[in-house]
Amino acid sequence: MSKSGLLLSGAAVALLAGQDALAAKGGKAATSDVNILNTALGAEHEAIAAYQLGAESGLLQKPVLDLAVTFQGHHKEHADLLSKTIAKLGGKPVLAKEKYIFPTDTLKTQADVLRFAAMLEKGAVSAYLGAVPLFGNRDLAKAAASILGDEAMHWAILRNALGEVPVPSAFVS
Q1: Distances in Å between the alpha carbon of 89 and those of 28, 107, 141?
Q2: CB-based burial label for 26 (10 Å; 0-12, 13-18, 19+)
Q3: Those residues with Cβ within 8 angstroms of residue 43's Cβ, 6 or more apart along the chain or in another chain
Q4: How many of the other CB atoms lie within 10 Å of CB of 151?
Q5: Tens digit of each residue's pLDDT (9 = 90 or more) over 140-152
Q6: Which end of the chain offers a freer environment for a tag, N or C, measured as fewer CB atoms within 10 Å?
Q7: Residue 46: which residues within 8 A CB-CB, separation 6 or more?
Q8: Over the Cα atoms of the chain, what is R_g?
Q9: Mean pLDDT, the chain, integer
């Protein structure tokens, strides 16, 4: 976890470097970037809530629970970085919802919780993959790609924990 955190911190520095100039410029690109970042922030809030649900479910055994809490911590770091960047760009960060609708009635075993988390992580990978080329600011694209990499690792580890092939293909879509 500490190595991953160090890499994310490096990405955070790269993301935040020079954003004051971009915020001062404003314009369509900055507004579009803020909208993309807010969409990502909303997804990070959802992931934090989903991992909280899993952690509190009583279904996760100790090593898996520790992993879920670690991944939740990554999502909290992503959310914090995204929120600060949105504010720095002059936007208003979206807040977490009061309540998320998760398929709790289908979460009856540890494998169910892992499958649910893997599905969310796969969705995050796809969302970041779609967002990266849309950024007007290339530093933001690079930072989003760094988060995408973290989400892909989460997905692979969860698939492995389920006994599935961790990386099912050579390309992610």
Answers
A1: 12, 39, 15
A2: exposed
A3: 123, 124, 127
A4: 27
A5: 999 999 999 999 9
A6: C
A7: 97, 100, 120
A8: 16
A9: 87
